[in-house]
Amino acid sequence: MNILKKTYNWVLGWADSRWGAAALFVLAFAESSFFPIPPDVLLIALGLGCAAKAFRYALICTIGSVLGAMAGYAIGHYLWQTPGGEFTAIADFFFRIIPGFTHTEYDKICAMYNQYNFWVVFTAGFSPIPYKLITITAGVFKIDFPVFLVASVVSRGLRFFLISWLIWKYGEPIKRFIDKYFNWLALVFTVLLIGGFFAIKHAF
């Protein structure tokens, strides 16, 4: 926990640097594939420092995050199986350590993942679910890449531009609200959106 707290404070420290925008891009890129701290932290701090640039920061954050998502996809796509279709040592390791995770189960999960590809990626991109887990596994299960890319752009853009709009519109008072409730609101919004989609799908 101390390491995470120090990392969190280190990320916030970039808000007072002239390299803040560059740091935001790097952070957004890294968070989509391996880094533990979400870019929202620095995005909020930079937006509060200069509300006029809030949407510019949102765009930088979105581009960095989507490029990072592509890197995460590549990690899963190329490190799980060889070009010949054989499982790598990394894949075999997970087959051994996860109870019930057989090659048959892998095929079933892969089929389910591809059936709901857009919504799986969108949910992780907008909600509090760690996005890096989905970007990497999307590559593992070979989700259709254009669908993956569109879902990433829509979800990440919607999330970051919403945060920037709130900062631009309400300023400092909204920071406490975002810090306390944004993840819950994002989760509820995602559930309602996906629930509505499936309701319409089954209704017609």
TrEMBL record:
* One Pfam family this sequence matches: VTT_dom
Q: Which UniProt keywords apply?
A: Membrane, Transmembrane, Transmembrane helix
Q: Which residues cross the membrane?
A: 20-45, 57-80, 116-134, 146-168, 180-200
Q: Which PANTHER family match?
A: ALKALINE PHOSPHATASE LIKE PROTEIN, DEDA FAMILY PROTEIN
Biological source species: Alistipes hominis
Superkingdom as given in the UniProt entry: Bacteria
Q: Which residues form the VTT domain?
A: 37-166
Q: What is this protein called?
A: DedA family protein
